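[agent] plan:
  1. take the single chain provided in the ticket
  2. run structure prediction with default settings
  3. attach structure tokens to the ticket
  4. add a short note for the reviewer (M.T.)
[agent] executing step 1
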Amino acid sequence: MAPKLRITQKRSVIGFAKDQKATVRALGLKRINHCVEQDDTPVIRGMVFKVKHLVEVEEIA
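[agent] step 2 finished; step 3 output follows
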């Protein structure tokens, strides 16, 4: 099984740039404390890095 990331939105996107809002939505997050699981790929890692100030990430098996 491929490694996964559990990504949780911890801050609001209000007041941040449109591209950051779009990145949070592209990760599948809709609101604060919403949690999604994504495959651990370089693309997802790059998206998480871009909005690291808005999200919390855990590696899961």
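[agent] step 4 note for reviewer: The CA atoms of residues 24 and 54 lie 8 Å apart.
[agent] ticket updated
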